[in-house]
Amino acid sequence: MHYRLLPALCALALLFSACGTASPASGEQERSLGFFAMDTYMNIRAWSADEALPAELEAVALDLEARLSVTREDSEVARLNREGSAQLSEDTAGLLRRALALCAETGGALDVTVYPVVRAWGFTLGEEDRAVPPPEELAELLSRVDYRAVTLEGNRAALPAGAELDLGAVAKGYTGDRMAAALRDAGVQHALLDLGGNIHTLGTKPDGSDWHVAIQDPRGEGLLGVLSVSDRAVITSGGYERYFVDENGELWWHIMDPATGYPARNGLISVTVVGGEGLVCDALSTALFVMGPERASEFWRAHRDWDVELVLVTENGTVLLTPGLSDRFSLSSGDYGIQVIPDG
Ligand code: AMP
Ligand code: MG
Prior knowledge:
This protein is of the alpha+beta class. The protein has two domains: 8-66 and 169-340, T-fold; 67-165, ApbE-like superfamily (T-fold), CATH 1.10.3980.10. The chain contains eight helices and 18 strands. The longest helix is centred in the N-terminal third of the chain and has 16 residues, at 53-68.
């Protein structure tokens, strides 16, 4: 596979925006903060009179991480996995309910019970501990993967023996939604949240123009292109984000095809979903990556009422755009050609 290796830290999207504009009359100015949460670097920029706001958003992210992390022993998800059933908080149960509906809607391309497989590949461990599991082991683990076996009655969740839940494919999108909601509640009109390359824009830039959100080149170290958006989440799943190369030089990444137990190799190397809700965009970025270009395009046509737009990057160097992005995306890399996905 022609695929240039990237340093693990390259997932941060580059962002271009108006720099620190202030409107002195209201005391409103750019408030920013960077911090680590959910295994990634997050960066907040909000135009507000309230100096304490970024720290409040950091607390939102850290609180959700403490409840949703699959690797933290004291999280709600870890407790459910350990004990087989658990009373969840309102937030966690609500997220699980939405996530299960998205698993169903994507025909299981998103499957929140794929965790035993992800772990067997070593993606929860350091790079040196990742390896291709034996096929018999994968077959056994796959028999435990089925989101339809998760039950949620009220806020009480239960799993069949051997099954484990992982909300990692949707947690950051949901967290961005919660942070954006906290900003709206505080009356903020302009903000940019970068959750490790998953971007949430609130309103426009302070000068009224669109935010420019960069999408990383999945095969190189530079940019694929730049999207102009306002009031939208821009969420990317890419094979380059977490991967390893086996002893035969073959590259394996962290997005699993729940139908096979192997990393999804269906023709896409990066999927960006633009939409109003981060949770939906995050779920779809993972699921459409699994589906591959044809099924992903078909899914988009069948879900026009979801109001999402896509940037699909194929392994042979085509950038497939939904029509709503054709005037909003500008290609930066000469290594790709653009095609617009037919809408009918
Ligand atoms: P994302 O970066 O949003 O695409 O989420 C990828 C993460 O979700 C991986 O690191 C796994 O922990 C988990 N995952 C991988 N494949 C799937 C899948 N098909 N459905 C649900 N979660 C997945
Ligand atoms: Mg996702």
